[in-house]
Amino acid sequence: MEELKRLIREVPDFPKPGILFYDLTTLLMDKSGLQKVIDGLTEEYQEQSIDKVVGIESRGFFFAPSLAYNLNTGFVPVRKKGKLPAETISASYELEYGEDILEMHKDAIQQDQRVLIVDDLIATGGTAAATAQMVRQLGGEVVALAFIVELEALNGVAKLDGYEVFSMLKY
Length: 171
Ligand code: AMP
What we know:
Layout: H1 2-7, E1 9-12, E2 20-23, H2 25-28, H3 31-45, E3 52-56, H4 64-71, E4 74-80, E5 88-95, E6 98-105, E7 114-122, H5 126-137, E8 141-150, E9 165-170
Parallel strand pairs: 3-4, 3-7, 7-8, 8-9
Antiparallel strand pairs: 1-2, 4-6, 5-6
Helix pairs in contact: 3-4
Bound molecules: adenosine monophosphate.
């Protein structure tokens, strides 16, 4: 795990002063780092009968489709407002650095499907909580939420009370 942490670039004051940004592109471009992350997530969920892997725009898209492929499931994108072309549902959320609205196609999840939600990082937990809310609104069961990085000091898991949360690397 220390090896994976070494592959993550920490960029101070991005996108604004006071934020330490965890840049996972440096992990993604390392073939062994990429393999370890995707294999680790696959092992964690391969016995869980997942029906859909939901990835959160934009950096959740770096990981969710590969994981969905390995788990032999479909991939569903959750996107920022205005990006999805068909009928959507939405949820608003707060970021560590801003506020926005997320959307998901109405027909993306079927009743009682077992859903795994994936993002690169959990900070305050707002993004993930909004996504879980939409999955449930569509009738899906949130089996777990998985992150590569968790910023423990921000206690984002408190917003995901009652859900199974897995973070590969904690800071
Ligand atoms: P939150 O809703 O506060 O848990 O924020 C999580 C979302 O914002 C994820 O999609 C992350 O990609 C992004 N994010 C928030 N804080 C950071 C950070 N310090 N470094 C990298 N990404 C971050």
